[in-house]
Each structure stands twice: as structure tokens, then as C-alpha cells.
Design goal:
By secondary structure, the protein is mainly α.
């Protein structure tokens, strides 16, 4: 039988394809992919199940303090389900917790543009605006959220914080008291009440409230920074430094650089006194 060049070429092509296929299989088996790496190459297309899966996964990352992982997850989610307003709210939250305020504001605005009747979207924006020190706008969005849901605790806390910043301590205390009636286990309310009492020069009650906040949640660096500053006012420099050092350790995981910087600056001031 005569073997033509055409047959030889066809046989050679098939052989090359087989060799490449076998090589690819061997390569994949030789690689030690972690679960996270496998997740990265997983491709999502829209379905209600896929959307819910990513939403739950992202919020679990938030609860675990894995803010970057949460951000990446919500980024995938809004690509496949761009009209899911709660996804944009959670996306905004993941960026707020990384102190990326401009992006956080941009994404909560997207949530509101999709559905402006959800109170949590409005109270989230009030919180972002508070951290951007736009207190008047923050108050406006807190009020809008409370018009929809008078029991929105976040809106109440932010509104109370704004009143504190404006020196309206009596008004803010009334708001915090109302928030405690709704959510007595929210440690941040006691933190803000403590700040209020300190601003009103009631240091004893301020210390009581800050101690209570820390007893309820020892994972908040801001609580230790505030109590450290109060110890400093009271002249207890050793306790002040201990609280500030504790705040730095807490803020390392998950990393909150702005809180680390604040604590370090206060420690330096104490050392230079």
C-alpha cells in the first residue's frame, strides 16, 4: 500500500493533538490548586441560584473580616446580576470597611438608583457620608431612611453620631436611647453614648459606657482608641498606652490602616508629653 504525504500529514496532526492533550492532563494533575484558586477560575452565569450563592458567600466573607475576598465576590455578583440592589449595598460595605470611601459611595448610589425605597440603602449612604465628614448630607439620608423604617438602627446611630459632631448632645442621647430600645445588643450604641458623655465632661459615665461596649465586642479597635484617649484625659498614661497598643493589634486583622495610624499618632503624642 502506498502511503501518501496527505495520509502522513493527517496521522502526524492527530498524534500532535493527542500528545498535547496528554501533556495538558499531566500538567493539571501535577498542579496543587487551592480551593481559592479553583474558585477564581469558576465562571458564573446568571441564575437565581448563582446570584444567591455569591451573595451569601460575599456576606460570609464580610462577617469573617475578609473584606478583599468579599469585594471580589460582590464584583462577580453585580456583573451577572446588575439589578440586584442589595448586592450593590454589600459591595459598598466591603469597600467602606477598607476605607475606600469614594468607591463605596459610588456603589451605594447604584443601589439607590435601582431601588430608592429600601431603608438600608439610604442608611448605608448616610454612614458613608458620615465617614466622608459630610454631616449635613449624612443627616438628610438618615432622615430619609427613618421615614421608610423608623426602626432602622443604623440610621438612628448615624443620626445620633451626626448630632454628636454638631455638639447637640442632648438630642443625640435621646436618639441613642431609642436605638438601644430597638437593639440593646448593639455594642456601637454604647460606644457612641460613651463618646457623648466624654464630650459632656461626664468622664465616669463615659468610662462605664465604653467599658460596656468593649465587654460586648472586643474586636473593635475604635472602642479601645476612644477609651485610651479617655484614660489619657484622666492622667492614666499606662492604661492609655495599653489600649492604644491593643487597638493596633486588633486593626491588623483585618487590616484597618487608618485606625492603626490614629493609634500610633496618639502613642507618639503620649511619648512626647
Amino acid at each position: 500500500m502506498n502511503v501518501t504525504p496527505k495520509i502522513i500529514l493527517k496521522f502526524t496532526s492527530i498524534s500532535i493533538v493527542l500528545i498535547l492533550f496528554v501533556a495538558l492532563i499531566l500538567f493539571l494533575f501535577s498542579c496543587d490548586f487551592s480551593n481559592e484558586e479553583i474558585e477564581e477560575v469558576k465562571v458564573y452565569t446568571y441564575s437565581p441560584e448563582a446570584s444567591l450563592d455569591l451573595y451569601i458567600k460575599g456576606n460570609n466573607y464580610l462577617r469573617q473580616g475578609k473584606y478583599k475576598e468579599a469585594e471580589n465576590t460582590f464584583e462577580k455578583l453585580v456583573i451577572i446580576d446588575p439589578k440586584f440592589s442589595k448586592a450593590w449595598e454589600s459591595y459598598s460595605e466591603s469597600l467602606l470597611l477598607q476605607n475606600e470611601l469614594d468607591k463605596s459611595l459610588e456603589y451605594i448610589d447604584k443601589a439607590i438608583s435601582i431601588n430608592s425605597s429600601i431603608a438600608s440603602h439610604l442608611s448605608k449612604k448616610s454612614l458613608v457620608l458620615y465617614y466622608m465628614e459630610d454631616y449635613d448630607a449624612s443627616e438628610t439620608f438618615s432622615d430619609r431612611a427613618l421615614q421608610i423604617d423608623e426602626n432602622d438602627v443604623r440610621a438612628l446611630i448615624v443620626l445620633g453620631a451626626v448630632k454628636t459632631q454638631k455638639g447637640l448632645y442632648d438630642q443625640s442621647m435621646e436618639i441613642f436611647d431609642l436605638a438601644i430600645e430597638i437593639e440593646p445588643e448593639d455594642s456601637s450604641i454604647y460606644y457612641w453614648r460613651g463618646k457623648n458623655y466624654v464630650n459632656m465632661f461626664d468622664f465616669e459615665t463615659g468610662m462605664f459606657e465604653l467599658n460596656k461596649a468593649i465587654e460586648m465586642d472586643r474586636s473593635q479597635a475604635a472602642y479601645y482608641i476612644e477609651r485610651g484617649q479617655l484614660f489619657r484625659i484622666l492622667g492614666n498614661m499606662e492604661e492609655s498606652k495599653n489600649d492604644l497598643l491593643e487597638a493596633i493589634e486588633i486593626a491588623k486583622t483585618p487590616r484597618k490602616q487608618h485606625l492603626i495610624d490614629i493609634a500610633k499618632e496618639l502613642l507618639l503624642e503620649i511619648e512626647n508629653e
